[in-house]
Amino acid sequence: MTPEQIETALAFGAVAPTLYAAHAVGDHWVQSHTSACAKGNAGAAGHLACLTHVLTYLATCLVAVLGVTAALGILGTLSVLGVAVGLAVNGITHYVIDRRKPLAALARLTGHGGWLDADPEAAYKLDQSWHLGWLLISALITVTL
User: Fold this and answer.
1) N or C: which terminal CB in the chain sees fewer CB atoms within 10 Å?
2) Which residues span the membrane (predicted)?
């Protein structure tokens, strides 16, 4: 491996778990009750609630990534573009699935409609697994751009 590849791998090793932790905090602690209840509603109020949630969620992710990488002395290995695009991908994919109807449509399209209908926890589990998969991609983007 080249020194650059090692640096990128180390940055990924810091950024991926940081985004995971920030996701848990931003999605559960930072999100307001109002946003949580309204973000899937139709109309402007639902879109605004979801946007508000995603913006506070992304702020949580940004503070965490900058704080952890600065504390580890590797902040300089990240580019502004990488952080911006990584967070944008995270935010867009988070917004789409948190509008709820896309989650239900995707679940049915992939053969998970029965589970969604039968298990009250299915929507939450599908939502979280979607977010975690995109967090991995976001972390890769963050450290490689």
Assistant:
1) N
2) 54-74, 80-97
